[in-house]
Write a structure and sequence with these properties.
Length: 270
């Protein structure tokens, strides 16, 4: 009778042939025989494996590896610190040009310059001088012609003088109106430009704020580098035991498997 029984065997398992025979076949008798197989590491490899494992054990028990003991980030240079300080001072103080320009723009937008130009009288005086000279010449001409015609002091002479005076007044009025119209038109054009530039002028307030923000972010970046360095050093020390243990176990489990088998047999009676 055959039994379904096969014991697991390894390199150091002793095999009792007699017992095996009794398990496989019912009946039979007599003496038995046994054999023993031993698997050992190749003697030529063994010294190297033992040395490697010993070294791995020594490394595991040592304080190595160690984190870089010095500062691992770069401090800002003196030039950078001076530049940042100067930029911060400038950003906090602002530029006197900006509020002055904004005030002028506001006055223009509000139409404060739409009135008479302070140089209007001087401009009109030049034109009036020419017109007055022409008026005086006209009066002299009227008096001379009236005298030659024997009508000096007559109504005709007075009528000519009146017309000359009216021409002078019209000339001066027209010239003043022309200057005033030109001044108003120019100022209205400047007003329209000021209105169009108002958003950009208002945004100039944020230029100094942005510069101050840039200075702060630059300083924060240096602090961030120092913090990241401290965190990396802390994490290295925390993970160091696990890393060393893993390295040690990898060395142990990764030892060469070259083996030499030795079999010893012993025989029995029938």
């Amino acid at each position: 009778m055959i039994y379904d029984y096969f014991p697991e065997l390894d390199g150091n398992q002793s095999i009792d042939n007699g017992k095996m025979g009794r398990q496989l076949f019912k009946g039979g008798g007599g003496g038995g025989s046994s054999s023993t197989t031993q698997n050992q590491l190749d003697p030529t490899v063994r010294p190297f494996v033992e040395y490697g494992l010993q070294e791995a054990k020594g490394l595991y028990q040592s304080d190595t590896p160690q984190y870089y003991p010095y500062q691992t980030y770069v401090d800002p240079s003196q030039q950078t610190q001076s530049a940042l300080q100067a930029a911060q001072t400038r950003a906090l103080a602002g530029s006197p040009l900006v509020p002055a320009a904004q005030q002028q723009q506001l006055a223009t937008i509000q139409g404060q310059n739409l009135g008479l130009n302070p140089y209007f009288a001087n401009a009109l005086q030049g034109a009036a001088g020419v017109a007055t000279t022409q008026f005086q010449d006209a009066l002299k001409n009227i008096a001379s012609q009236s005298s030659q015609a024997g009508r000096y002091g007559s109504g005709a002479m007075a009528d000519l003088q009146s017309r000359a005076s009216k021409n002078l007044a019209d000339t001066l009025t027209n010239k003043a109106s022309e200057l005033m119209y030109t001044n108003y038109a120019n100022e209205r054009a400047a007003q329209e430009r000021a209105i169009a530039n108002a958003p950009q002028m208002a945004a100039s307030d944020y230029a100094d704020i942005q510069q101050l923000l840039n200075v702060g972010q630059t300083a924060e970046n240096y602090q961030k580098q120092a913090l990241e360095s401290d965190i990396a050093r802390f994490e290295f020390e925390e993970n160091k035991p696990y890393t060393k243990l893993q390295s040690y176990l990898s060395a142990a489990y990764g030892a060469p498997m070259g083996q030499v088998s030795t079999t010893k047999s012993s025989g029995g009676g029938k």
